[in-house]
Design a protein that fits this description.
Aspartate Aminotransferase, domain 1; Aspartate Aminotransferase, domain 2; 41% helix; alpha/beta; 2 domains; three-stranded antiparallel β-sheet; single chain; seven-stranded mixed β-sheet
Length: 389
Amino acid sequence: MIRRAQRIQNLQPYLFAQIEAKIEKARREGRNIISLGIGDPDMPTPKHVVEAGVAGVRDPKNHQYPSSKGMGTFRKAVADYYMRRFGVGLDPDRQVCSLIGSKEGIAHISLCFTDPGRYNLIPDPGYPVYEAGTVFAGGIPYHMPLLRKNGFLPDFTEIPSEVAKNTALMFLNYPNNPTGACADGAFYDEAVAFAAENGIILVHDSAYAEMAYDGSRPPSALNAKGAMDLAIEFGSLSKYFNMTGWRIGWAVGNPDVVGTLTTLKSNIDSGAFQAVQAAATAAMNGPWDSVDSMREVYRRRRDKVVGTLKELGCDIESPKGSIYVWAPVPAAYTSASFAEHVFDRTGVVITPGNGYGAHGEGYFRISLTVADGDLDEALGRFKAEGLRF
């Protein structure tokens, strides 16, 4: 009998793997399935980025082991972006590290700082990898509720002092997955002050910083006073440039925190393929007009989904950012039972909110990363089947 390690037994089943398995099974049965469940952009990687990647593949010097912390040209491109976009100065040699996608860094950061028995503060609802990484490290997840009445921002005053004083990391994510909420500079000032008071490293997942609407320009957590003393911020090209399959991202911030993550990475991976880093460098250096166009596509889809759900009686607020719509389920349903009901009646996959944590119960998530025709078809099925809220 094969015995799994306790850390694996402690993991919750990965939500999106379950969704993918369900879709595959239904399609094998001949059903016409439309998935609004997974945030994987339907638009192609921009041409100039692909061309840079192809050129990188053809260059023999990229066929060897890369540096764990990344190519200097890529790290400089990330630092230049931070100065251009946020006015944040970074030393590319000490404060920037390349990642095999931001998920990799987020999953590993707990191994760097969270000893067994210490807490990590986890937003709830939130990206499941925050908790998975905590469990792998032997840490204890402490869930910070993200409530609609608070604009889906955590209330730091609700965290017991005995928990805060024994906390290694605090994960934050804005624009937020799954709620679509955004945070302003005052919030990050409060978060940094709370972290500093309690000796906590602030971990900000900034994967959706360019996915904000209606004139919003979300700040970096590193804009906050004192953030460079204790914060690390993760970013990714996956959503900005439709590069989910390329697996490339970055970590920036406090040099000791970034350096510790780099040390861990040097012991467990060999860095990102340099041809991919060449493509990512071309993306970061511009032009960025494709990002502006993509943002407009998502805004239009957001308005369409929110408008339809309101027509059906849903009490929903239009999200300010991300590529998702977060909506309450009808009163007679749980998150899971409503997702099942919608799937059975319409063949449309939505994500049950409880998959993101206990405080996601009572909600569901729709991803805006499907072609317009499929989205129109899915919303049409909702209406045709008489879904009501």
